[in-house]
Specification:
This protein is of the alpha/beta class. Helix content is 43%, strand content 12%. The strands form two sheets. The chain has an eight-stranded parallel barrel. A two-stranded parallel ribbon has the order 6-8. The chain binds S-adenosylmethionine and iron/sulfur cluster.
């Protein structure tokens, strides 16, 4: 697809055309990655962060947030929950921190999780930008995928969303993605959709970036405002929630048509804009679902944006909801699978050995 074709897809608001687009994207998904979703249990293990991104509710400068760190036991318990419920893989996510102690702690946890699940549980990390040696240490300890959103591929827009200092540098983020790929991670990236100052052309360029870099997985979702952040001051520039969600769904469908075999997540922010937002993303071609398995007691501390869903639920309640939600979307659940096309998945072997 050309840039102008992408722009035209992203700009359409005609209901019939959108229905056709989502139908095509579903058919392409079904034919290429199956009519199913892969599961990644999401563990938001700490909200401590050294950065100050203007859009994020847990940015360092937000003094309203009670900071937390889950204990090793709580993290291992959550990983066990995913394993026993046959999720196939987990995502360990946190704010960005850099210290030898943090690095070693994550490495130790990775080894412990691998040991407890006989290498069966796939592990994705999402802990921001780190030096290449840290990425390598974590890779060797057992992480095989890493999520680092580029947030937007427009350097000018990136600069409006972040403080002007070396900690928030667009080129550094691109270099981090390159480090991850070189070390051997399956790298996921993504963007926020419907940001203030963002143009539909920027979004088309984001899609072309994913294609040009042959990204194996993408997690993208609507930007959702948080009242205690600087970007909230520009909320008058935002599309209304339904239109913003619709734009995000068109991004999902366009990406599926552009990259038929990619893994695309139905992200939580979709559900913040509409109770059925994640189901709609599956109906637009997404194939990854990330049930939240963070212990309920800390969930209110990981409010990236207002109206974040599932704050009052625990992992079991989210698990009960999962089957129902995914079936409503008309697809199956691929239990026990990592869902990586490019890596061997030893999970079924591990289970047989148990
Ligand atoms: N700190 C790591 C990082 O930034 O890569 C990982 C955690 S961070 C909370 C994960 C993602 O949350 C970010 O990449 C960003 O896209 C998303 N996010 C933060 N604030 C958001 C908002 N207000 N609306 C939608 N997504 C948001
Ligand atoms: Fe920190 Fe990530 Fe939020 Fe930026 S988006 S403030 S790095 S948690």
């Amino acid at each position: 697809m050309t840039r102008s074709e992408l722009i035209s897809i992203l700009s359409t608001t005609d209901r019939v055309q959108m229905k056709e687009l989502f139908g095509q994207a579903e058919a392409v998904r079904d034919a290429n990655v199956g009519r199913q979703v892969f599961l990644r249990g999401l563990i938001e293990f700490s909200n401590r962060c050294r950065k100050n991104c203007y859009y994020c509710g847990i940015r360092r400068g937000n003094r309203q947030v009670a900071r937390y760190d889950l204990t090793d036991e709580a993290i291992l318990e959550a990983a066990d929950f995913a394993w026993h419920n046959r999720y196939g893989s987990i995502v360990l996510q946190s704010g960005e921190r850099q210290s030898p102690r943090f690095t070693q702690r994550i490495a130790r946890l990775l080894e412990q999780i691998k040991q407890r699940t006989h290498g069966g549980l796939g592990i994705t990390l999402s802990c921001g930008e780190q030096p290449a040696e840290v990425y390598r240490e974590w890779f060797e300890a057992g992480a095989h995928r890493y999520l680092l959103r580029i947030e937007t591929t427009s350097p000018a827009l990136y600069a409006r969303l972040h403080p002007d200092d070396p900690l928030h540098d667009f080129d550094r983020r691109i270099a981090a993605l390159e480090d991850l790929r070189r070390i051997g991670y399956l790298t996921g990236t993504g963007v926020m959709i419907g940001l203030p100052f963002q143009r539909v052309e920027d979004l088309a360029d984001d899609l072309l970036f994913f294609h040009r870099t042959q990204t194996p997985m993408v997690g993208m979702g609507p930007y959702v405002e948080h009242r205690d952040t600087p970007l909230y001051g520009h909320r008058e520039l935002l599309l209304p929630p339904r239109q913003r969600l619709s734009l995000a769904l068109r991004m999902v469908a366009a990406l599926r048509l552009l990259m038929p075999q990619i893994n695309i997540a139905a992200t939580t922010a979709m559900q913040a804009l509409h109770p059925m937002g994640r189901e709609q993303a599956i109906r637009a071609g997404a194939n990854v679902f990330m049930p939240n398995i963070t212990p309920q007691r800390v969930r209110p501390g990981y409010k990236l944006y207002d109206n974040k869903p599932c704050i009052d639920e625990n992992a079991s309640q989210c698990n009960d909801c999962l089957d129902f939600r995914v079936r409503l979307s008309g697809v199956g659940i691929a239990y026990d699978q990592w869902g990586d096309r490019t890596s061997a998945s030893p999970e079924s072997v591990a289970r047989q050995e148990l």
